[in-house]
Amino acid sequence: MDFSSIYSIPSEMKAWVYDEYGEFKDVLQLRSNVSVPQVKEEQVLIKVAAAALNPVDAKRMLGYFKATDSPLPTVPGYDVAGVVVKVGSQVKRFKEGDEVYGNINERALENLKQYGSLAEYTAVEEKLISLKPKNLSFSEAAGLPLAIETAYEGLVRCGFSAGKSLLVLGGPGGVGSLIIQVAKQVFGASEVATTCSTGKIELVKSLGADLAIDYTMENFENLPKKFDVVFDAVGQCDRAVKAVKEGGKVVTIIGAVTPPAFIFVVTSNGSVLEKLNPYLESGKLKPVLDPKGPFPFSTVVDALFHLETGRATGKVVIYPVP
Question: Could you tell me which residues come within 8 angstroms of residue 137 by beta carbon, excluding any fewer than 6 positions away?
């Protein structure tokens, strides 16, 4: 279904595409003749200004989710920030020209979009996006959606609330850097501790961590201090369960699950972004972008290699697009 637009929208665009599953360095290709996605009635078409990478991108390319994935060829990418250039007939909340951001896949591992955010244009349901915070650049906004939604949803699922203590495994990472801030600023944590390497202690403290545990010097599970909630963003669940108070909660987003911990997969939700926008606009929550970036659109493969090292600080962002 097609709708008129004040913008001149081409029929083809530049996009990163893979035709088969495999290592990203082998299968991912930049093409200039990819069809611009059609807009369904509940969707908007976004002219992509910036996109962000997530560890799930490389896993998806390997075919880990092919039973529930979109058909090939696929344009990868979850996180987007850009400008609405077309709206479907049932769209109520957005108009052409709106600057928006969001995670375009409602469920991170199923019913994924064939045309993701690593392209000049992407189509997404209006319920999955929000207006971009006015004080943030497109690069800053693109780095937020999947990670901040993961941080918020994980804390909600744990029943986290004011006055509780939290240990974050992987505080300097894309998700971890937002868990620290959301726990402190939105939920009112009494104490936030996090693991990090020696060189990133100052960073995590600047984000609001009260205690930085240098994993090159000590094992967090051996400390006498225990926590109400442990949020594992790195895949160390077997150790995480040893750091929680009796009756506390352990949540993880990656790797094998050791009882009584639980794992969840984030749900994209524009209303969560809207709820957090005031905290972003007031500066209480801050995007953390990896200092090696942003990576230009032509260097997505380099950016994926950087993310794969596990040493990225904050989010790996692609800007400008294209």
Answer: 50
Statement: residue 301 has pLDDT above 90: yes
Compute the half-sphere exposure of residue 291: CA atoms within 13 Å on the CB side of its CA: 5
Q: Please tell me the distance from the alpha carbon of residue 91 to that of residue 100, in angstroms, as a whole number.
A: 14
177-191: per-residue pLDDT in tens? 999 999 999 999 999
- Nearest partner of 81 among 131, 142, 27, judged by Cα: 142
Q: List pLDDT tens digits, range 42-74.
A: 999 999 999 999 999 999 999 999 999 999 999
Q: Identify the three-state secondary structure at position 14.
A: strand
The DSSP code for 27 is H
Greatest pairwise CA separation for the chain in angstroms: 64
Q: What is the pLDDT of residue 224?
A: 97
Yes or no: say if 73 and 18 are a contact pair by the CB < 8 Å rule.
Answer: yes
Q: Which of 315, 314, 311, 318 is nearest to 294 (CA)?
A: 318
168: nearest Cα among 204, 144, 206, 216: 204
Residue closest to 19 by CA, chosen among 77, 78, 74, 76? 74
24 Cβ partners below 8 Å, 6+ apart? 18, 57, 58, 61, 301, 304
Q: Which residues, 6+ apart, have CB-to-CB distance to 158 below 8 Å? A: 229, 231, 249, 251
